[in-house]
Structures are given as C-alpha cells and as structure tokens.
Amino acid sequence: MPLALYCHLPFCRRICPYCDFFKKVPKPGQLDSFIGILAREVEQSAERERDWARGPADTVYFGGGTPSLHSPEQIAQTLDALHAHWEFAEGAEITLEANPGTLTLESLRALRVCGINRLSLGLQSFSSRKLKILYRDHTADESREAVNLAREAGFSNLSLDLIFGLQGETREEWGGDLREALSLNPEHISLYNLEYHERTPFGKWYEGGLIEETDQDLDADLYLLAHEVLTSAGYEHYEVSNYAKQGFHSRHNSAYWNGTPYLGFGPGAHSFDGKDRRFANIADIHRYQQRVEFEQSVVDKEWLYDPQTRWEDWLSVRLRRKSGIDFQECETTWGIARTVQLRNAAQSLPPRLRNLSDTHFSLTVEGWFVENEILGKLYSLTVQS
Ligand code: SF4
Questions:
Q1: 363 pairs with which residues across the strands?
Q2: Contact (Cβ atoms closer than 8 angstroms) between residue 196 and residue 209
Q3: Is the beta carbon of 230 within 6 A of some atom in ligand 1?
Q4: Are residues 186 and 79 in the same domain?
Q5: Which residue's alpha carbon is at the smallest distance from atom 2 of ligand 1?
Q6: How many Cα atoms occupy the beta-carbon half-sphere of 66 within 13 Å?
Q7: What is the pLDDT of residues 104-140, one digit of tens each?
Q8: Distance in Å, CA 351 to ligand 1 centroid
Q9: In terms of CB atoms within 10 Å, which of 56, 72, 148, 275 comes out highest?
Q10: Do residue 224 and residue 348 come from a single domain?
Q11: Whole domain around residue 180: which residue ranges?
Q12: Under 8 Å between Cβ of 12 and 23
C-alpha cells in the first residue's frame, strides 16, 4: 500500500491575517533546533505507527508555514530521517512549499540536489492592491523572479497558488492574476477562495464589520472565470480548486482525495491510516517539543470513524475530483444497497450540477461551487439503517 508523508514546518517571516494554518514567527536559532526535534519525531512515529504506515512512500510534502525559510541542509536532514525509516517509491514526488523572497538560485539548486522535485509557490496575486490587503511580504516582481530562478535551477514541476474573492476584487483584477500566472507557464495552479476563519484577524475584522465578504454571485463568477481561462489555456480542472497540465496532477494531494494512508509529522500535522483512524499532532510548538524529548506521543486528537462518517468522508473527497465516483468501486467498497441509494440521490440533483452515467457520478463546475449544499443533501439521502 503506498503511503504519503507530510512534514509541517510551521515558521513564517510574518503572519498573514487571513491564514488559518498552524504557524509562528521563529525565535533566533529555532529553525535549526526544530529540525532536530522533527527528526526525532519521525523516528518515534515510524516505530509507533509501523503496523499500517509501511509504505513505500510515494510522495513527501513539506508544507507550512513557509518551509523555504529553512536551509536546504535542514530539508536534507529531514529527508534523511524519512529515508532511514521508509523506502521511497521510484520517482517519488517530493514537494516543498516556498514563498517568493525566500529563495536564491543557490538554495534552489541545493534543494534539487537533496531530492526536492516539485515546488509549490505561494504567489497569491500579482496585484499590488491584493498583496497589500493580504499583508504578503513579497512583490509581484519577486514572484516572477522566484519562478525564473526555479526554472534556472532545473525545476520542471512548479505549482502556483492564487487567491481570489477579496473585498473590492473585480473580474478584471482576477483575470489579470490568471493571465500573469499563465505567462509563467506553470505545470500546476491551485486556487483559493478567500475565507474569513474565526480565529484569524480577517475573521475578527469581518465579525466587527470592518471588512465585507465578497458577494456570492461575484465569487461564483470569479470561480467560473478561472475555469474558462485556465481550461482554454490547456489546463485540466481536475479537482475543485486545482488545475494541471497533462501528467502534472499533484500526486500528494491526490492521495488525500483517493483515500491513500498518510502520516504527518510536526505540530498540527494530521494522519490517516487508510481505514477508519485519523489523528492530529498537538498544535503547540513548546508542548510538541517537550513530548518528543520525553518520548511521549505527540498525538493530541484522535478520531475513530463510525461507518456513516467513513461513508460521508469517502463521498466528499471523491466528489472533489473531476473523475468523481466509479459506481463499481462504490459497490465493491460499500455494497449494492448504498450504491443504489447514491445513484438515486445523484439523479435527484439538478442536471446542471452533476454528470451522471451508468458507471460514474461527478459534479460539474457549477456543482463544485455549491459542493457543501450538495453533500448535505447526498448525506441525508444515503443514510443506512
Ligand atoms: S506565509 Fe503562508 S503559512 Fe505563513 S502566515 Fe502567510 S499564508 Fe500562513
């Protein structure tokens, strides 16, 4: 059974007010000491989760935070720790998230040498207005420069992240972001529709009426505009928020959507055993470090899914994919009765929101935009007594 490995490197130069990930500004020396702790957690978790997390590792993902704040030597040290416990599949996809302004030609070359073969660049926008609102610490020129340097260093698999749906955003501004991204010819593009998470400054400003959410119709319009522009340029819209050139789907994220087991390291990282157990590491650097030092488990929350929750989870991740649900696979996994229920439930959706054939069920682009409402309906129509 293949395995996906995830390392959460939680440090950022400064904190973006919309960000809901676990992250911190590092103290002096902390980037280095953290990597030592992380390597110890890898060793301890490898032992603890040995029953199911055997591998080989098909993908490794360094997410954050801003993993590119770490030196290539620190990334190499982490990869060595993983290699010591897992065999890597041939051609394993190894991704590092990076921000413009944290990369040099030298560091990029060193990252290639240590095994990173895919970069995910958090550009977010080329509009200086949007970058300012998002409080990003880089400019559009630095974004272009980061892509050019990555190409020069030999990276042939680049993903760019873009955000849409900010207050005051227009079709023209978003269209400009999309065109700028296309001009850099990335292999993969991920889009993020801005949300106002409760615990973030944006969430508080929104609650206090200081900023306004974009109108739902405009959000939908921007989402559809991206679909039109990117698919016309030859990108496949293969998942709700992700586009790729042929052969460049994110293998790591696909593992999440396909139900592949994954094991996460670092504070706040999540894991899934591929069946019914999910767990999350403690989201607190100090306590995480203490537990590793005392060889205690860093797992803070654990969920054992009952059959209905497992079903809902299975349904929701598969409907994120363009390929959707294969009824034959559904029948093998969940039985005939549940498959018939699902087929009938899918039939009851408005045709503009779903693609339905004898063998497959998936959501249309319009359906993806209202995915949560659709899932609520499907869950209620497919409860097993
Ligand atoms: S750089 Fe990324 S992880 Fe860090 S605060 Fe900003 S959005 Fe969050």
A1: 354
A2: no
A3: no
A4: yes
A5: 65
A6: 24
A7: 999 999 999 999 999 999 999 999 999 999 999 999 9
A8: 39
A9: 72
A10: no
A11: 3-256
A12: yes
